[in-house]
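Is this the right way to post structure tokens for a design question? Let me know if I should format differently. Anyway, here goes:
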């Protein structure tokens, strides 16, 4: 479970919302929606412990070690860093005890699952946006974290990549994991994600996604 109490976040002295309280149940699948600049990505960073809140607390009811996996936006990744796609994906093994053979077999299976076979030794700078995004998602597939935070995971993905994404999101949800997904595609949210947390300058609203999206044009981009 994720519990936020009296939470405010944003730049120092410039909170994006009043203090808010909300709870996301263990095993829930929730979209974070809202207009540009409302703090959707910042909220995920606060929950992940990567950014300090201005006030309030975030409580994660999970074991501390390896309890959370965070998918950042591509723009925060240094594509000049001299590692291969395979090395990037293999970072998902952090904290997982396996034999070298088990790791090799699992890594290859995940690469094939995300349609990355044959790209293992390609450097990050040589990857397309869609290939890099699938590599980041493949890295998340290797993690065993019960809480997954995904910041615009559909970015740069073509139709095939988006189908893979939603297949895995539903599979992770079926495993009982807690997922929070920042998504600007309201049609996809309505189709795939049962609950939504809408962020506005006046606060946050947590409700079934069909209720929140029905109140605004489906063409609106968050």
């Amino acid at each position: 479970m994720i519990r936020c109490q009296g939470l405010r976040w944003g730049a120092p002295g410039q909170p994006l919302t009043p203090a808010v309280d909300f709870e996301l149940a263990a095993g829930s699948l929730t979209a974070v929606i809202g207009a540009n600049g409302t703090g959707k990505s910042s909220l995920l960073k606060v929950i992940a412990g990567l950014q300090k809140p201005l006030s309030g607390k975030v409580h994660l009811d999970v074991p501390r070690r390896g309890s959370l996996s965070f998918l950042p936006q591509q723009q925060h990744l240094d594509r000049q860093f001299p590692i291969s796609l395979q090395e990037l994906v293999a970072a998902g093994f952090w904290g997982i005890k396996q034999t070298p053979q088990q790791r090799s077999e699992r890594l290859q299976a995940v690469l094939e699952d995300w349609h990355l076979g044959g790209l293992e030794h390609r450097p990050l700078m040589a990857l397309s946006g869609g290939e890099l995004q699938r590599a980041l998602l493949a890295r998340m597939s290797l993690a065993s974290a019960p809480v997954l935070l995904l910041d615009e995971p559909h970015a740069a993905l073509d139709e095939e990549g988006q189908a893979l994404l939603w297949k895995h999101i539903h599979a992770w949800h079926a495993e009982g994991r807690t997922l929070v997904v920042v998504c600007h595609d309201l049609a996809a949210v309505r189709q795939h994600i049962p609950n939504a947390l809408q962020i506005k300058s006046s606060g946050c609203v947590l409700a079934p996604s069909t209720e929140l999206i029905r109140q605004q044009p489906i063409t609106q981009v968050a």
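Format looks fine. Someone answered above. Worth noting: The longest helix spans residues 159-174. Confidence is low (pLDDT under 50) at residues 218-222.
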